[in-house]
Amino acid sequence: MKQWEAMEAFVEVVHQGSFSKAASRLDVSASHVSRLITHLEQRLNTTLLFRTTRSIRLSEAGERFYQHCRDLPNTLATAEEAVSALNQAPTGTLRITCATTFGERYLAPLLNDYLLQNPQVDLDFHLTNREVDLIEEGYDLAIRMGALRDSSLLSRRLCDRAEYLCASREYVDQNGMPHTLAELNKHKCLMGSKTHWVFSQNGQRKEVKVSSHWRSNSGPALLDAIRRGLGIAQLPDYYVKDDLASGKLVSLLPQYQYPYTGVWLVYPRAQQPSPKLKSVCDYLIERFEKEDIFGSWSKRP
């Protein structure tokens, strides 16, 4: 900081042709400006200014130094204006990651609407069922489901989510229903990307690991397997709500269903979140609060 202050004082002295006038412009004393120039000359091991009682004159070294740093004050002002503009209006590229199906069905349409309202924002939307390291991989925002584990990140709740254990009517007719958690091992269990299912027992969260003959990291593939009667599985409400309502699927062990968990907007800590990050989070939360996003998607042709 002292180095920059000395360079700024040097440029102002040359511009004003006087230590006192430069000091007045910088709102410091003339003696302080003189000390800054002296320290700068000592650091550079050369004379930059020849001083007399009536005038100052640049040395050869001072002339060369001035040519390189004369635009620094304007460059700093321009940089500050650019950052100030960033802090006022959403601009730049948003890098967002989300689970594939949730992102395709629900986030993509909303993000596209957001871009229409904010044309200065560009989008890099990465869909993957892998949990991305936001800081290591340079993402601004992730949408994550269920319990959050990384306390180094900040989060805002986007919406509620419930998971249903269910099966087709054909499967239930042929194999019956489980009545306790212990009976799950007697059934054909279909697994998604998780290693366990989550239930509530005696008011406590309970994770149950089951053996599985079928596994996929695709929610739609898992839903198709349930519909075809291959077994039972646990899926979020936005996958199965319509099939449960129509009777195509049957809810199992509702007495053990875990209460609502969240869908979260997760982002790295920062002293001041950028306007683009704050605005997209506010926008998504407002849309989910005001609209039946899951229901409106299911009604699309």
Task: Present the secondary structure layout.
Blueprint: H1 2-16, H2 19-26, H3 30-44, E1 49-51, E2 56-58, H4 60-69, H5 72-86, E3 92-98, H6 100-117, E4 121-127, H7 134-137, E5 141-145, E6 153-161, E7 163-168, H8 169-175, E8 190-191, E9 197-201, E10 204-208, E11 214-215, H9 219-227, E12 233-236, H10 237-246, E13 249-251, E14 261-268, H11 275-290, H12 293-298
Parallel strand pairs: 3-4, 3-5, 8-11
Antiparallel strand pairs: 1-2, 5-14, 6-14, 7-12, 7-13, 9-10
| Cα-based radius of gyration, to the nearest Å | 32 Å
Q: End-to-end span in angstroms?
A: 61 Å
Overall geometric form: rod-shaped
Helix content: 40-55%
Strand order of the largest sheet: 4-3-5-14-6
Which residues form runs of ≥5 with pLDDT under 50?
Answer: 296-301
CATH domain topology of the largest domain? D-Maltodextrin-Binding Protein, domain 2
